[in-house]
């Protein structure tokens, strides 16, 4: 389907005919596809998340301590991101493991999953945090057996206590970084991203007025526990706000946290006895909020990693009736049983998954994710192919900055999942490509004008130096990106 359309660009892409005419040789030198879309990303909020020292290459506690000892200070703080839970080797995440190498400096280190952070005593004191707190969401400040704060801040509300006092880059710095990031994303073939947060719309609008955004951004603001009717109506009012190459479309929920953090909602506890609670203390309140937004015509996306969380979202969508078909989606779906897999297609619930996340696990199941779940649940890791074979729409993304934004890596790991998921069959080359094109269009409710090359559709194109459907996955991961076109504008031209 894709290749037939690509070989007659003048007929199938009339809105971008001038590209075909001006660069006609390109269409025969390499293959042009409809533009690739990252279906789960945080390019604006991620600028804050990916600040400071990149800890993603640290593999053990010794390496972490060495990196922190040599780290540059940002206004007196040590700030880091991308820290793998496996670094702690099964130990509790505790500030006592790192404080002696920091010379008393306050530190804020984001764990790779974005749902927890490790901070030092100096950071807690700077934020005025002296003991446990209670929150409207399932979030907490971890303590040891003696009631001492360990510095492990679990989930968003706890992280915000310290995160809100961190040094902030200037508007000019953030603008520059955003343009650089979106340009780098376009260089991997991306023409669009489903942004799973509200970001900073004023910043985005300012940049979009000054220059062409290389990547289309579709924002989904968060709806958190405790949201009342007025808060829901504010989310409804936000829908459709936008400018050139950006708009608000949808609302993001959280039904749970992460397996490694002990906050994924599981049908049975993990090996530490954790994972038995939903992110919404009253799950029925989540369902009520989804129903309210559904009646208002608002699409929703729900973070649900554990089997209990995914099941609750399925039950909620089922309660909406037939009008919910392809209107709602679930993000992540890291471990679910057979009966859950089979329900997606029938309900028209879209599965949005991030194949690069499989790289944080290990094939021998010695990683924190697998150990917490146990062999049976770890064997159900990232069931991409099972969901597709069962007839579900499967949209693909990276969840940057949790994993790298490179669209080629998303395509490659969808075909050859890593770690605990490596024993399972991956997607075919065509299925992987559909996950970033046609299924991306379905996931955004934009299938009538996005996701393929056809008359009247968006002039978003990605030209690769090989065929991502037929080429081996490892070659796709390194494929030359010859051209990226967003809205008829050339935003990247390769060598």
TrEMBL record:
<dbReference type="GO" id="GO:0016810">
    <property type="term" value="F:hydrolase activity, acting on carbon-nitrogen (but not peptide) bonds"/>
</dbReference>
<feature type="transmembrane region" description="Helical">
    <location>
        <begin position="12"/>
        <end position="33"/>
    </location>
</feature>
<keyword id="KW-0472">Membrane</keyword>
<dbReference type="InterPro" id="IPR032466">
    <property type="entry name" value="Metal_Hydrolase"/>
</dbReference>
<dbReference type="InterPro" id="IPR011059">
    <property type="entry name" value="Metal-dep_hydrolase_composite"/>
</dbReference>
<dbReference type="InterPro" id="IPR013108">
    <property type="entry name" value="Amidohydro_3"/>
</dbReference>
<keyword id="KW-1133">Transmembrane helix</keyword>
<protein>
    <submittedName>
        <fullName>Amidohydrolase family protein</fullName>
    </submittedName>
</protein>
<keyword id="KW-0812">Transmembrane</keyword>
<feature type="domain" description="Amidohydrolase 3">
    <location>
        <begin position="32"/>
        <end position="492"/>
    </location>
</feature>
<dbReference type="Pfam" id="PF07969">
    <property type="entry name" value="Amidohydro_3"/>
</dbReference>
